[in-house]
Amino acid sequence: MSAISVGQAVVLGAVEGVTEFLPVSSTGHLKITEGLMGIPVDDNAVIGFSAVIQVGAIAAVLVYFFKDIVRILSAWFRGLRNPEERYHHDYKFAWWVICATIPIVAVGLVAKPLIEGPLASLWVVAGSLIVGSGVMWAADRMGRHKRGEDDTSFKDAMLVGSSQILALLFPGFSRSGATMSTALILHLDRVAATRLSFFIGIPALTGAGLYELKDALGTGAGALPLAVGTAVSFVVAYASIAWLLRFVAKHSFNAFVIYRIVIGLLLFGLLGAGVL
Prior knowledge:
By secondary structure, the chain is an all-alpha fold.
């Protein structure tokens, strides 16, 4: 019997879709939801399931930014063939995304037992939600919001890409929160920071989902729950991306900061009371 039912897969897919690209920690919300539903958060099948349904959210990014991705990849392929094209920003940006993915892949492979063991605790999630809120609050105030997407550099991409390691090691910190905060500290405006977070996350999250697929199927996650969870994640994530880009164009990250603190404190309370 599957470790996760189809009904649970629908709920988890929706949670993943809503939270994957919002700076509130999809991993943290998935673990909280799993705990409330009585699903063991440290079970290998559950960990694999969580990684695989992220592919649905990533597919939503690919569809939403399809024209941008085609433009960037076209410039990259042209640059591989023609040296004169290598001065184009899109060609360089493609290489930056590739290079920015290397740190999180290296850490993910080396620290996998730690990530799936002690750091998978809900106590870590609660603490990371609150600490990450402080980082986000500070970054939003430190940043001058004066640089657009065309002003990004290799240094920006590497720093933003490397910041994903925080979310990898500390579930609850939020990959989006870490990358957006880093981009804000580098003085990118909120829309540019959000879009850069999307593009930087595509290779890492897609790779994680594909890497975990065999283990997820082999440890009892079930093919049908995986398919359902991934499909729901795609639909909900697409709507979430569209909303987030409109939101950050006119608002600060204060709402996310407050929300994360409330959820973190609530989680500490539930853990302390033995509810989770």
